[in-house]
């Protein structure tokens, strides 16, 4: 009789342990198959690939720099200096992801982005070639002249970005890149819709 009771007791304990393990695995699988998507997880995913959410604009230019010494706004004769340069550069446009508003509402992830801005504008120094440079002993060309020239050229490129609607292209690229990036996640692609727009839209 004692053996029989021990057998029944062990059987009940075994069933309880098996049930516990079974329901534990079921809950674990449910938790793994439906991970929770929050504002924080979306932002972390975007920031981890922030370099991909940019637009590059390459340019190749010919520029002329010229000035002369002046007194009271009048140019001094024989002090004119100039040079002509060809060069290449690159502008990188993107957004500040820390200023993005992200909200998870039901089955929709709403992302409101800050305006696109110029992240960098760099002239490739190796591409610079100088042509027709003046040799004025009264007003020699200096390093500051080249710096001033670079500033002027970068300002000209900023206007070009507006004229060629590069900012609008960058906005389209940004939305496309973010959509592709987030949809790489099974949890987001299968369970959520994306609503991405800009604050200035």
Strand content: 25-35%
Measured on Cα atoms, how large is the radius of gyration?
32 Å
Secondary-structure class: alpha+beta
**Tertiary shape:** elongated
Helical amount: 40-55%
Poorly predicted tracts of residues? 2-33
- For the termini, the CA-CA separation is 82 Å
Mind describing the biggest β-sheet?
3 strands, antiparallel
Strand line-up in the sheet with most strands: 1-4-7
Sketch the topology as an H/E string, one letter per element.
HHEEEEEEEHHHE
Estimate nothing, just give the exact number of structural domains. Answer: 2
Mean pLDDT across residues: 78
- Output the number of helix runs: 5
Number of strands: 8
Protein name: DUF4230 domain-containing protein
Organism: Dubosiella muris
Note the main attributes of this structure.
alpha+beta; 31% strand; 3-stranded mixed beta sheet; 201 residues; 5 helices; DUF4230 domain-containing protein; single chain
Give structural notes.
It is a single chain. By secondary structure, this protein is of the alpha+beta class. The protein is 42% helix and 31% strand. The chain contains five helices and eight strands; from the N terminus they run H-H-E-E-E-E-E-E-E-H-H-H-E. The longest helix is centred in the N-terminal third of the chain and has 32 residues. The N terminus is likely disordered.
């Amino acid at each position: 009789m004692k053996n029989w009771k021990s057998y029944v007791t062990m059987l009940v304990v075994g069933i309880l342990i098996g049930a516990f393990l079974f329901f534990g695995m079921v809950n674990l699988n449910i938790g793994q198959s439906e991970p929770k998507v929050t504002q924080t997880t979306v932002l972390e995913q975007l920031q981890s690939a922030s370099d991909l959410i940019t637009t590059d604009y390459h340019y190749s230019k010919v520029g002329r720099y010229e000035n002369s010494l002046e007194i009271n706004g009048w140019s001094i004769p024989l002090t004119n200096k100039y040079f002509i340069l060809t060069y290449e550069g690159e502008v990188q446009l993107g957004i500040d992801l820390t200023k993005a508003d992200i909200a998870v509402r039901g089955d929709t992830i709403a992302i409101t982005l800050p305006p696109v801005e110029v992240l960098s504008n760099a002239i490739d120094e190796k591409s610079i070639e100088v042509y027709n440079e003046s040799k004025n002993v009264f007003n020699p060309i200096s390093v500051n002249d080249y710096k001033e020239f670079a500033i002027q050229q970068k300002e000209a490129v900023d206007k070009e970005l507006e004229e060629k609607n590069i900012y609008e292209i960058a906005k389209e690229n940004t939305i496309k890149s973010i959509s592709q990036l987030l949809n790489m996640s099974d949890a987001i692609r299968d369970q959520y819709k994306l609503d991405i727009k800009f604050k200035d839209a």
